[in-house]
Amino acid sequence: GKELVINGVGIRKATFLKIKVYYGALYLSEKTTNPNAFLGNSDPKQIVMHFVRDVSVTDLKKTYREAFEASNKETYKNLLPSLEAFNANLSDIKKDERMIITFLADGATLTFIGKTFPKVGDAAFSKALLNMYFINPLDQGLTNGLLGL
Q1: pLDDT (tens digit, 9 = 90+) per residue, 121-141?
Q2: Cα dihedral angle (20, 32, 7, 31), rounded to 10 degrees?
Q3: pLDDT digits (tens, 9 = 90+) for 8-67
Q4: Euclidean distance between CA atoms 146 and 9, whole angstroms
């Protein structure tokens, strides 16, 4: 119910070949180039991904698990059940489909292939999921784009 503004857009590239996977857009309550300005607050945030290639559910889950662990080294094991519940909603995604993650003060929601799934986790999980894009990110170019750099 809160209005968000687009903060920045980046492209996720994978493998050493830099294969384009999706364009991501970060929406916040106000624009900033500093992730510390929003990672610690409870305002809603959203990342919208528009896929430019097919991605298997196996690859999606593997990438989310690797990124989640890398960005949340100290809390990873405690939050793993929430990540598994979140990942259970994923399926193969096709070129031109969208995935939207909404980060809330009391969990995260996933809208995937036109369906919004029930909220998962709590505040700690929502923050940890968002951390994937800004703390030890798998793709610094995507992070820079999301931050409008």
Answers
A1: 999 999 999 999 999 998 999
A2: 180
A3: 999 999 878 889 999 999 999 999 999 999 998 999 999 999 999 999 999 999 999 999
A4: 5
Strand pairing class (45-51; 19-28):
antiparallel
Task: Count CA atoms closer than 13 A to 4's CA, side-chain side.
Answer: 19
Q: What is the dihedral of CA 35, 11, 84, 131, to 10 degrees?
A: -10
Which residue, among 70, 104, 80, 83, has the nearest Cα to 1 in the 3D structure? 104
Q: Report the distance separating Cα 10 and Cα 16, nearest Å.
A: 18
Structure-token pair, residue 99:
């995935």
CA 148 from chain centre, in angstroms, equals 16
Distance from C-alpha of 129 to C-alpha of 83, rounded to nearest angstrom: 8
**What is d(CA 144, CA 1) in angstroms, rounded to the nearest whole number?**
27
